[in-house]
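Quick illustration, no need to memorize.
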Amino acid sequence: MNKYVAKVMADVKAKNPNEPEFLQAVDEVLMTLDSVVKANPQYEKNAILERMVEPERVVMFRVPWVDDKGIVRVNRGYRIQMNSAIGPYKGGLRFDPTVNLSVLKFLAFEQVFKNSLTTLPMGGGKGGSDFNPKQSPHTPGKRCSDAEVMRFCQSFMTELFRHIGPDTDVPAGDMNVGGREIGYLFGQYKRLANEWTGVLTGKGLSFGGSLIRPEATGYGDIYFAANMLAMRNETLEGKQCVISGSGNVASFAAEKLMQLGAKVLTLSDRSGTLFVKEGFTPRLLKQVMQLKNVKRGELSELAKAGRFFKGANPWQVADKVDCAFPCSRQNELDGKDAAYLLKHGCKLVGEGANMPSTPEAVEQFVGAKIMYSPGKASNAGGVATSGLEMSQNSERLSWTREEVDAKLKGIMKAIHDNAWEAAARYGKKGNYVVGANIAGFVKVADAMVAQGVC
């Protein structure tokens, strides 16, 4: 490893010893930048790496709210404003018990490069809370009511609103933050700021949202996979695919795969994995979407539709796998899972979630020279379409579904081509990990050099 890169990595570890997810994300990027740093001495002269691994701002606050029993509850809220060199901070809000500084800093760090790859003028940020909308605070086994979620969102935004704005920081949804939550958050922002502006993306179509936004991350993941296959003169037609997750990303990835002639074998959630040997049908997928988005239930309720593996992930349930799409959460696919997938024929892994593969899994995929795309590249469709929503809001326009989908396809091809060309330029042809990191990094680094020490 280059001495400068090694020094920065050692400093990061010393300063953040209790943040494993953040350290993993930083290590994954920095270890691919040796050749870029050597070729560009201005980066070390301007301390670009040292500045890039430090958030520009970390906001942490309490979120008091009242549940349906009249009991006062307190959660913790965060916003990590990582880097604004190429545009306003942009990144999702996550509501989940696993949320902490390490997780959000890793997500914000990844978001910087992901947003850079989209070619749109967006910086990187991330935020959220340890609030769990899937668990009522007073009734075990039940979810929070809509009223409780609304009161929490209103309290959360009452603090957050002073730190965001259409030209400062534009949050979106993420894990457990969907259309319902974005609506409540937007309503409270509008009430406090006394203005209607595109300060949040992922909004409903009736108040400034963009067509294709719910589908964008899943669709984009599959468009990226199609571009990888095209480099080998292949298509998704007839491919047997396993997917983790059953939220928007996974569901719409499954939908697009079926539209392109692939067979979807699995979807999953915290209750386990639903495996359908003959492949999911459009009708069954609609049942899954209804279950998850309306009833907010668990996949185990659809166990009779196939074979249900309680508490299991989807990576080791199929005898033959062509493509794998991890679309759930970080570090969900480990070294043993990777070995199983490779042994059973997997030739493509397209990450729909953020950093879903552990370092051991990534090492195996890259070593086997299969088509492997890191999340910062292949799941950038969501934030890219959020950027398109920002443009529509600024211009007071609403594009058609076909227009947005065409722009999304074009952006995903540009991301693919940029990553491919960057890898080839630095002697790592076909390595999308190196290519995505370099392509995303250079744009941000050059902007930071141009703007001076700030």
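The first helix runs from residue 3 to 15.
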